[in-house]
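HOLO CASE FILE
Compound: nickel (II) ion
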Amino acid sequence: MLDIVTLGSDAEDAILHSKAEPVADIDPAIRTLIEGMHEAMRHGKGIGLAGPQVDRALRLFVTHVEGDQPRAFINPEIIMTSPEEADYEEGCLSIPGLYTNVRRPASLRIQAWNERGRPFTLEATDLLARVILHEYDHLDGILFVDRLSAARRERALAAYLKKVRM
Ligand code: NI
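Model generated. Tokens follow.
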């Protein structure tokens, strides 16, 4: 089972704040990594998981939203986001136990490659759009708390860190 890097647990969480590198080749090692990420995501009862969260600084993530198939997005590019925004309560396997409302675009269009090396374009709305935007941020070292106002971010992080350091 792949270990999930969590915020503030030790000095090893720098990868959560770093920009990930493009995947050079969608080879068997990448397919194995993606299978492992799906497994770790299921085990953690998450609906999305990005490379940096399993200590791989690679631009890929997986999703599995209820009612949708399990998906892998390799070297993704978000090519459109809607001007309409939505509030939704988010959590993150790397910040366990912290949930808070985040405002983001309500829908998007994304291009990526799947685990078989095929390019695809996907239009997403609702929860799938939400999880894609959250996971895509991980590839740029951005956590959902970084999308909050400074005051809300500080409060949320203080509560979370107090809990993990007890
Ligand atoms: Ni996350």
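CASE NOTES: Residues 92-94, 134, 138 surround nickel (II) ion (CB under 6 Å). Strands lie at 48-50, 60-63, 71-81, 85-90, 100-105, 107-113, 119-125.
CLOSED: yes
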